[in-house]
Design a protein that fits this description.
alpha/beta, two-stranded antiparallel sheet
């Protein structure tokens, strides 16, 4: 097979090092077929006939040959983002089949080039949905995981039960309608958990803290975008410092919530390249036993948690 080396094909070959030797290793049938298909697809760029469906297929193959995880999802998210949609499935049939402009193709190529460097798709897009919120995402601030949404739901359910008990006179606390819970989040990251709770518990107030200044800045930015800045206090503080002076002005809190580091230090090197290259490793490294930060949170709970309060982490839940 003869490959003509044009500027476009040179770019293609830089992503597919095997493509320049298509006849030399027939055992790699998947790579051979992918490269042939991609060379054919790529030629359509000159004719300006590239559709969203074409680019999803094309970049999926690029990602797969380069062993990028979740190749199809990555290509769909990026193409949809450039077209102004959240998901590929939400695009109309005409949007999927209409040829894209040169500018749109260039935008998609630029974003996909970042994904080829193993940048998480959340950082590539610069935003991500959590619960019913769309949040800005920036490296190295830890990306919220889907399972953390369950933690938010747990807190909301419990606070609703407390509010109902208070309304029935079986709880000494004031009802949420009078004075909602004061919640402390240790390790706020992008603000996903704290801001979701503020949205779902309209009478609540949140104190959010993180040892990473970039996380404090991003939580503050997301809070302002969602117009929730008046009900949240964001602190640059490391719970491991064992100093609680910065929390004293707010008194006791009703609930402590955290998605703390829990990965054993010896296992950190085994994490995916996306995490190791781009995310804040301090949000995952739990020390030799995976419990270093969790122990500090429990120590903090004994000092600032109201008598009837609870602490919640992705590792467990318990009363004061």
């Amino acid at each position: 097979m003869k490959v003509l080396i044009s500027p476009l094909n040179r770019k293609l070959l830089s992503w597919f090092p095997h493509c320049g030797h298509l006849g030399m290793n027939p055992a790699k049938g998947f790579i051979l077929n992918s490269c042939r298909r991609l060379l054919k697809q790529y030629s359509s760029y000159k004719a300006g006939l590239v559709t969203a469906a074409d680019l999803v297929s094309y970049w999926q193959d690029v990602f797969e040959v380069n062993e990028i995880p979740e190749a199809q999802a990555s290509s769909e998210y990026i193409v949809s983002h450039v077209l102004g949609a959240k998901t590929f499935q939400s695009l109309s049939a005409s949007s999927i089949s209409t040829p894209l402009s040169t500018k749109q193709q260039e935008q998609i190529q630029q974003l996909c080039a970042k994904r080829l460097q193993r940048m998480p798709v959340q950082y590539v897009l610069g935003e991500w949905d959590f619960q019913d919120l769309t949040l800005k995402m920036k490296p190295p601030v830890f990306i919220p995981r889907p399972e953390t949404e369950e933690l938010v739901s747990l807190i909301v359910d419990e606070e609703c039960k407390k509010g109902l008990a208070s309304a029935n006179g079986t709880d000494s606390r004031l009802s949420p309608e009078t004075c909602g819970p004061v919640i402390l989040e240790v390790g706020c990251g992008s603000g996903a958990v704290a801001l979701s709770l503020l949205k779902k518990l309209p009478q609540s107030r949140v104190i959010a803290m993180d040892k990473l200044q970039a996380a404090v800045n991003l939580t503050n930015e997301n809070a302002k975008r969602l117009h929730l800045q008046d009900r949240i206090k964001i602190l640059h503080h490391d719970v491991s410092s064992s100093s609680w002076k910065c929390l004293q002005p707010w008194g006791l809190v009703d609930t402590i919530i955290s998605n703390p580091p829990y990965v054993f230090h010896e296992d950190m090197s085994q994490l995916a390249a996306e995490i190791l290259r781009y995310e804040d490793l301090g949000a995952l490294d739990g020390g030799n036993d995976g419990m270093s930060v969790i122990k500090e949170i429990l120590n903090l709970a004994s000092r600032i948690l109201r008598d009837s309060g609870t602490y919640h982490t992705e590792s467990g839940i318990g009363p004061r």
